[in-house]
Every structure is written in structure tokens, then in C-alpha cells.
């Protein structure tokens, strides 16, 4: 995309409850249209209720918004930052109206999802497009979305730093127990599991096959969603210095999945992190380093699925355990996000699109049929192109 002058920046995120009374309404928003009864939602609600009914994601987004504002100001970029959610207040349609009422006409959107799949990218575009329609702003407010940034250095570097410190932590724990850490540690890169049909439809259709043909063994491209995570993990491990880690050789690593939901008969990406930890314990592993590679911040699924369940599983298996940080408001991450803004903005425009893996930089404008949603009956969700030019995507029929 050629650079443009944007009036404002929207930080778009998932949203989360702010109190006990918000938990069920929030979960109903998340699962709208799936016919899930409240009894089943209450099973997930316990994760929030044990933390006061408050999701940490909102406070983290407020902190990220403030950090973005500070970095933009530091660079002399006059660009107000707004924040809107898909599933809780402040909702995206209300924020778009607020942005328009403030006099802005060209909006750049940054989402808190780094990878490519329906829920991480296309669904945001659809929600933005439907918000333009519902508010009557279609044709009045121009909206462009920043590319997926899974391998941008601003996203990768904080994870690299965390992996180094996490391995050192587990090495120290094992040595304190007189256990030789060499060959005894595995690094588990964790991300959100998604249905296999969504994984197979992630990114442009047939891109995985194209990548396999053009890049060969340099890229694990069984599906684009997993390939992106694997590529970042490989980049991190390529840089590791065993001497710095206090080891003779680099530890083993693997990609694992978490937060599976939905009907048991529907295949999702595996292995589950808890199953992986139990299997590792049987094969002589003595410590695990868990890296929340699929997440921007420490929201509920990180705190519950990793800090609670995965940690408990490791303790039950008598394994040393360390969980590394998410990027959050790490200065490297914040600077990287503003670099992404400057890729599209005509103020302090950056013509170079940075990427740390062979897969990137990702597309500014999604290709046709990118990250389509596959329905339960195996058909593709129908699409229309009514506001394609406004959000750089096709929209689903409501």
C-alpha cells in the first residue's frame, strides 16, 4: 500500500469483563450465534470469577494505548489513539462514531492479534465493516488495517529475551536440585488452538502449498497459522547462545496449543499443552519453559491456561517450570507497533517492511479468500464485497 495521511489510530482488541456481573453477558457476546447454553458458559466463567470477574486484557490495553501515545509523541507524530473492542465496552461501532464525530475521516487500525486466521484477522475486518454499515459511516469514514505482525522484530525480540531468561531460570532450578540440565529441558511455544478447518483455511487459499514449493524444508507449512508460529520459534532458537544459557547444547522445543473449546468431535490443533507436559515427563524431561508465543498480553487465557493449569500439570509431574512474558508494553514491542504505523502513514513514512522470517512481511491487503470461515457443515461462510475498499476485506452476510 502507498502511504496515506491518517487522522487517527484505533487499537482494536477482543475485550473482557470488568466485574462479576459482566462475565456471562461478555461470554454470550463471544459465543453469539452458536447456541451455547449459560450452563456451559459458566464453566468458562469460573476462570474470570476466580479473578474477581475482571479480565486483565482491558487494563493491558489501556496501558498499551498510553504507551503508543507516548511513542507517537516522542517521534513528533500528531495522531490521536482510540481503543475499541469486539466483545465488550468500548465497542467498535461506538468508537467509530466517536472518531467520526471528532472530525477524523481516515482511520488506521492496529489489532492485538499478530497471526493469520479467521478470528485473528478477518473477523476484525468484518466487524469493522459491519460497524461502518450499522453506524451509517460507510463511505464517510475510511478504515485501513495494519498487516499481521507475527514476525516483525518488535514482536519477536521480547519473546527472544523471555526465552533466554526462562531457560536460565529452569537451568538454575534443576541445578539447585543437583539435576544435570543438559538434555533435560524442553521449551514449549504455546498458542491458541483453533479448529483444523480454520487452520487449513488460514491465510490465502493454497498458500501453504505455495510456501512448501518455493521454500522447501526452510518452512514448515502444513497450515499457514501453524507455519507462522513455527517460523518465529525457529528464528528465536536460531539465535540462542548455549554458553549464555549455561548449557552444552540447545534444549529441545515444540509448538503446543491451549484453550481448546467447542464440541469434542470437532478436530482442533494438537497437542494440548497439558498432554505434552505429561508426555515429556514420561520421556525424561525434567523442566519446561512455556512461551505464550501466540499472545500479545497476559490476558485470561494466559493467566488461567498457562499460569494455572499448565503450571499445575508441571508440578504434578515434578517438572521445573517457567513461563516467559508476553510483549505487553515492552518498549521494543511499542516501538515496533509504531514502526508498523509508519509503514502506512505518510508522516515519518518507513518504506522498509521489516520481517524476521521467510514468511514475511505479511500482506497489507488480504488476498481474496483469505482466512475464510468454514461452517460446521463444511461450507464456506458466504461473503459480500459491499465495503471491501473501506476495510480491505470482504464482509460476511449477517
Based on the coordinates given, report the CATH architecture of the largest domain.
Answer: 3-Layer(aba) Sandwich
H/E topology pattern = EHHHEHEHEHEHHHHEHEHEHEHE
- What would CATH call the class of the largest domain? Alpha Beta
The helix tally amounts to: 14
Quick overview:
Fe-coproporphyrin III binds at residues 55, 124. This protein is α/β, with parallel strands linked by helices and 398 residues long. Helix content is 43%, strand content 12%.
What is this structure's SSE topology?
Blueprint: E1 8-13, H1 23-30, H2 38-49, H3 56-74, E2 81-85, H4 92-101, E3 106-111, H5 118-135, E4 142-145, H6 153-176, E5 185-192, H7 196-200, H8 207-215, H9 224-239, H10 242-245, E6 252-258, H11 273-282, E7 287-291, H12 300-316, E8 320-323, H13 331-344, E9 383-384, H14 388-391, E10 395-396
Parallel strand pairs: 1-2, 1-3, 3-4, 5-6, 5-7, 7-8
Antiparallel strand pairs: 9-10
Helix pairs in contact: 1-2, 3-13, 4-5, 6-9, 6-13, 11-12
Pfam families: Ferrochelatase
Family: Belongs to the ferrochelatase family.
Pathway: Porphyrin-containing compound metabolism; protoheme biosynthesis
Task: Summarize the structure in words.
The protein has 398 residues and is an alpha/beta fold. It folds into 2 domains: 210 residues, Rossmann fold (3-Layer(aba) Sandwich), CATH 3.40.50.1400; 171 residues, 3-Layer(aba) Sandwich (Rossmann fold), CATH 3.40.50.1400. The strands form 3 sheets. It has a 4-stranded parallel β-sheet with strand order 2-1-3-4, with helices on both faces. A 4-stranded parallel β-sheet has the order 6-5-7-8, with helices on both faces. Strands 9-10 form a two-stranded antiparallel ribbon. Strand 3, helix 5 and strand 4 form a beta-alpha-beta unit. The protein is globular. The C terminus is likely disordered. It is an enzyme of class 4 (lyase). It holds the Pfam family Ferrochelatase. Belongs to the ferrochelatase family. Its main location: cytoplasm. It catalyses: Fe-coproporphyrin III + 2 H(+) = coproporphyrin III + Fe(2+).
